[in-house]
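User: I've been trying to design a sequence by hand for this structure and keep getting stuck. Would you show me what you'd pick, starting by listing the structure so we're on the same page?

Assistant: Good idea, let's start from the same input. This is the structure you sent:
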């Protein structure tokens, strides 16, 4: 397992691909648009921290694609750049990805960051290749309360994401108030020939790659609506949008939704 000593202060670069607004909305009728699991109505979010320059990462990259195929999981890959010095620059790494991972390390009192690392619903971290441990963590995450995010299309270029009033569901106001609302623009599967570094000579497949990340605002626990500019994301080449609601201070994920950008009416 590869690891890097030291914890740095977190900072997330803002992308300019999305138009978003937090608007109050009337509370939805009980059960409207919600999955059957009342306690955990949204999929579990698995974040994989990986690198094209990491020779232990390919099995984790394969596992992430398998996890994302499940209905009860959203799997996304954050490529980091701190292994670029080994001879290969990761073509998918964002400047904001390693700071996000280090912020998790600080919140979870880790003394280092590493790849491949899977963070499950913001609750714990695991070797990204350890399917058994990740499966157990997904099952454990389902015991934690989350909120249902309802997504609707407004034409082809706008997506509304409705957040319920926290008091109407099982997540209390202590977690909801000050929760960060994140939007990730995500690519599907890509194959990359690696010319140098630890994976030199291999052509590796990556999936669900985070290519943009923006903090849209904070949730105050009241019913609200976020509007996403899907047209701008598609124009930038993105295939999916993933919305995450995260408890303050890099806490657990209390809501998540994945939207395929080719699922718009008329697509």
């Amino acid at each position: 397992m590869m690891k890097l000593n030291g914890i740095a202060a977190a900072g997330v670069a803002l992308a300019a691909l999305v138009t978003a607004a937090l608007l109050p909305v009337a509370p939805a009728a009980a059960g409207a648009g919600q999955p059957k699991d009342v306690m955990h109505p949204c999929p579990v979010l698995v974040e994989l921290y990986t690198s094209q320059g990491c020779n232990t990462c390919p099995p984790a990259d394969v596992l992430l694609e398998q996890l994302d195929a499940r209905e009860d999981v959203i799997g996304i890959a954050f490529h980091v750049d701190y292994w670029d010095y080994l001879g290969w620059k990761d073509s998918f790494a964002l400047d904001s990805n390693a700071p996000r991972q280090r912020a998790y390390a600080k919140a979870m009192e880790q003394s280092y960051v590493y790849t491949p690392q899977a963070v499950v619903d913001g609750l714990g971290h695991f070797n990204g290749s350890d399917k058994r441990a990740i499966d157990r963590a997904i099952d454990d995450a389902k015991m934690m309360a989350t909120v249902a995010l309802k997504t609707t299309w407004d034409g082809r270029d706008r997506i509304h994401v409705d957040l319920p009033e926290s008091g109407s569901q099982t997540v209390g106001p202590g977690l909801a108030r000050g929760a960060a609302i994140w939007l990730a623009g995500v690519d599907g599967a890509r194959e990359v020939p690696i010319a140098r570094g630890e994976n030199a000579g291999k052509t590796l497949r990556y999936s669900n790659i985070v290519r943009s990340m923006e903090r849209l605002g904070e949730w105050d626990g009241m019913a609200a609506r976020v509007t996403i500019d899907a047209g701008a994301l598609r124009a930038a080449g993105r295939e999916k949008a993933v919305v995450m609601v995260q408890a303050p201070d890099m806490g657990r994920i209390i809501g998540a939704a994945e939207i395929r950008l080719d699922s718009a009416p008329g697509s």
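That's my pick for every position. To get oriented when you compare it with your attempt: Confidence is low (pLDDT under 50) at residues 5-21, 24-36. The longest strand covers residues 209-219.
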